[in-house]
Specification:
Helix content is about 30%, strand content about 30%. The chain contains 9 helices and 23 strands. The strands form 8 sheets. Strands 6-7-8-10-9 form a 5-stranded mixed sheet, covered by helices on one side. Helix 4 packs across helix 6, helix 5 crosses helix 6 and helix 6 crosses helix 7. It starts with 9 loop residues before the first strand and ends with a helix.
Length: about 450
């Protein structure tokens, strides 16, 4: 089973006895500490939390800073790190401060007065994990800031203090309520403070190299390009969605999903793309308003999908019932195509569009003219299987595009969204020549090995 844990809110008072040389961190705050010659007993107290977790090690180094909340309360940020990772401690504090600042500004007050962040040993395979007031993360051996690691993990787990810890959903049944919302907000925070990530591949699984790798031989790159290329934060979610866009709806029971990929897509990636798509239709401010209301009205309580859907239905600016039906409740296949643009008269054009999938969404069509400044726009409700528009233009139309701003992230084939009246071959020919060059060199290399 791929899901995580779930429990109700409780009060904890936990005493832990351990050797004196161990440094300890846990949910809650220390209310008592006793010590003899070789051992100590530390008592933690936590109120109204859904779980209690703790860690102890002889290798931790402790760093503490205070963050002033939006309402003026002091939040103690404690890092327990592996000694070899202390060189980037400032980056880790920045990630924690950035996450809390963004969430308090856009979602609501941080729910606790203390947060402990635990640097898991590389050999432990612990990775990122959330618990109330304490999280784990992983620091790669080589980690340039452009890779946004461990920043992305630290930020992701801090968002979970809102959506998992303060708003407790049953991950066994509805994992998307915390994982999907958290993934979306993680990406918004990274966009706000760190810009877009850069494409990288790893040499011998460790050392990150800027560029794209197309072929490797025993972990040694063979065909690759060394170039700095930035991509959208949600690109990974798109990648996983394309691999599994039909198996599983967002609201499907999480533990019953058949494999790890379908669980990841339904719990993390589809909900993330859903919120990005919602952003395309109502704007970032509108999405933050919905998520903020969801958090503020349900803080420190158990929540279900109905609570989130209620906030969508309560949004006053526009009716989102179609959105819920299309993207949450059902598993629709979205694929809109701009099939042709042809001149029917001196200044008249016919634009033919198709809906290839069963998913329906409002669509905008942009038509481009040679003036470079006139963009003609058409609105289509997207309901018909096909539709032909006839418009008049004083300047020649050379190309068109369906959904030019990529509002609907669920469209499975953006390549057929555009159309040009005159085919251009030089771009594809240039790429083909480059491919042939690298393939020829790879074959020469393999031939020489033999």
């Amino acid at each position: 089973m791929n899901t995580e844990f779930y429990s109700d809110f409780s009060n904890y008072e936990v005493s832990i006895a351990l050797p004196d040389e161990y440094m300890i961190g846990a949910t809650g705050t220390i209310v008592n500490e006793k010590q003899n010659e070789t051992r100590k007993s530390v008592t933690f107290k936590a109120s109204n939390v859904i779980d209690f977790a703790w860690t102890a090690s002889t290798e931790f180094e402790r760093y503490v800073k205070s963050y002033k909340s939006i309402v003026g309360k002091e939040i103690e940020i404690e890092f327990l790190i592996q000694p070899e990772n202390d060189e980037i401690i400032d980056r880790k504090f920045s990630a924690a401060f950035n996450a809390i600042e963004f969430l308090e500004k856009n979602i609501g007050e941080f729910p606790y007065s203390k947060l402990t962040l635990v640097d898991a040993p590389r050999t432990s395979h612990v990775g990122g994990m959330e618990y109330p007031q304490i999280i784990t993360y992983y620091t790669p051996l080589y980690t340039p800031i452009e890779a946004q690691r461990p920043e992305s993990t630290v930020i992701h787990e801090i968002v979970h203090q809102y959506f998992y810890a303060a708003l407790s959903s049953n991950e066994v049944y509805e994992a998307w309520l915390d994982e999907g919302v958290t993934t979306y907000l993680e990406e918004k925070i990274l966009d706000e403070y760190y810009d877009k990530p850069e494409l990288m591949f790893r040499f011998i699984d460790y050392y990150p190299i800027l560029g794209i790798q197309f072929l490797q031989f025993y972990e040694i790159p063979i065909i690759y390009t060394l170039r700095s290329l930035k991509y959208e934060q949600y690109a990974y979610s798109l990648n996983r969605y394309y691999m599994n866009n039909d198996l599983g709806k967002i609201v499907d029971t999480s533990y019953q999903l058949p494999n790890r990929l379908s669980y990841g897509v339904s719990a993390y990636y589809k909900p993330n793309l859903f919120l990005h798509t919602l952003e395309g239709y109502i704007g970032t401010k509108g999405v933050f308003e919905i998520v903020s209301n969801y958090y503020r009205e349900n803080k420190l309580s158990l929540v279900t999908s109905a609570d989130f859907i209620d906030q969508l239905l309560a949004y006053e600016q526009t009716d989102l019932s179609w959105f819920i039906e299309s993207f949450i409740v059902n598993n629709k296949h979205y694929d809109y195509k701009l099939t042709s643009i042809r001149k029917s008269d001196e200044n008249k054009y016919k634009i033919f569009v198709e809906r290839l999938g069963d998913g329906v969404a409002p669509i905008e069509i942009s038509l481009y003219t040679y003036t470079g400044v006139d963009t003609l726009k058409l609105d289509w409700d997207g309901k018909e299987r096909w539709k032909e528009f006839e418009i008049e233009s004083q300047t020649e139309i050379y190309a068109g595009e369906i959904d030019p701003n990529r509002k609907n992230k669920f469209d499975v084939n953006f390549a057929n969204n555009s159309y040009v009246t005159e085919s251009k071959y030089w771009g594809s020919l240039s790429m083909a020549i480059r491919w042939f060059f690298w393939i020829q060199n790879a074959l020469l290399l393999f031939g020489s090995v033999g």
